[in-house]
Amino acid sequence: MKIFLFSALCIAMAVAMPYDVVEYEDGQQYYAVPVSREKRQTQWGLNQGGAGISHTGNIFDNSNHRLDGTASAAKNWGSHGIRPDQFGGRLDYSHKPSGSSAFIGADRTRGYGTDLNVGGKYNIHQSKNFGVDLTGQYGRHFGGPGGTGRPNYGVFLNANGRF
Q: What DSSP string describes 95-119?
């Protein structure tokens, strides 16, 4: 059932894409598919404890807004099965004109629960030699052997200057 729904979603997305038809002099027709190249980065690593992979890429970018996403997974050598032991994701948003930003991320470890983190930065003042911003962050652990933990949060006023 899941493969059917996934296939139907892929077909619907392909049909909804705007294609231009190009016809050559000999009568052959071709679909011109728009291509957009974005910087994407895949990292992987192996060590004595296991293997991990993460992929980061830009989801949306224009003159005012930028949205980036990251997905990651890791597998410990000593665990059973082929499912990943840890997996997670993160979204990062930036408002370019103001320099403000926000993020949300979650990491799930099988048998130990989920960590959720949310944060943001508001740029109060920025000049060539001086900047002030307000940042806030919230994190909490859910589930696992220790149960749901207490929230961890904070709000900070940051200033920096170049002399």
A: ETTTTEEEEEEEEEETTTEEEEEEE
Structure tokens at 158: 């940051």
Average per-residue pLDDT in the chain?
Answer: 82
Average of per-residue pLDDT across 137-153: 93
Concatenate the DSSP letters of all residues of the chain into one string.
-HHHHHHHHHHHHHHHS--EEEE-TTS-EEEE-------EEEEEEE-SSEEEEEEEEEEEE-SSEEEEEEEEEEEETTSSSSS-SEEEEEEEEEETTTTEEEEEEEEEETTTEEEEEEEEEEEEEE-SSEEEEEEEEEEEEESSTT-SPPPEEEEEEEEEE--
Q: Does residue 141 contact residue 150 with C-beta atoms inside 8 Å? A: no
- Which pTM was predicted? 0.68
Convert the pLDDT of each residue in 11-46 to its tens digit: 655 555 555 666 666 776 665 555 555 567 888 887
Provide the β-strand partners of residue 137.
Answer: 119, 154
